[in-house]
Amino acid sequence: MEETVFFNLGNAIAAKRDPKELIKEAQIVKDKRDPLGKLVIVEDEGETLILFDLADQEESSENNQPFKIKKIID
Fold this sequence. Notes:
single chain; alpha+beta; 5-stranded antiparallel sheet; 1 helix; 19% helix
């Protein structure tokens, strides 16, 4: 089951088309961040994968976009 979440693109940490490269980027970011935070990889309509901090999730509004969760990194 896919879940839709809302983020402001201005809060994106990284964006890549290659999932393996984005997972590597996520691991590097995770090693440098608070160990309690979660990172999430989402996919936009153009099939680009985007990395966000799950804490930046927002309610639906004109300032953010819906994304489908592909992976959550604890």
